[in-house]
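name: query_chain
kind: protein
chains: 1
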Amino acid sequence: MGPEIPIRKASRAEAGEVTRLLSGFRDYYGEAEPSTESMHEVVVCLFDDPNTEFILAGEPACAIAQLRYRRSAWTGAEDCWLEDLFVEEAARGEGTGRALTEACVHRARGRGCKRIQLDANEANGKALALYRDIGFESGTPERWDG
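structure:
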């Protein structure tokens, strides 16, 4: 077992780091849009949304997850959507993705969420294997924490 990976909720002062990591995620998939500038504008706005959190891993930050919360008519509680999770190449294979994903599940439970859902690119076999190992299922990308 390696050293503990520091994980924290990003502060507004870290909007630049959040943008840098989300831009890295965009670049990883070879996308050109949104531009880094427009992404930064949205990131700054999302810090004002109480239903959005950016979670950073590493010091300095080398990984990010974006959590979005919404009330569900089906559970009567909040659901969590793990919208984005990205680990920079140099930090892959060291447990950062696992630690960050598990921290996101823990945050969602702590907020009272009954379900957590995520999107994963079907071509990203390593990420899919990690999510399955943590308890997510393909086809129904949710984890019931009821």
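note: The mean pLDDT is 91.
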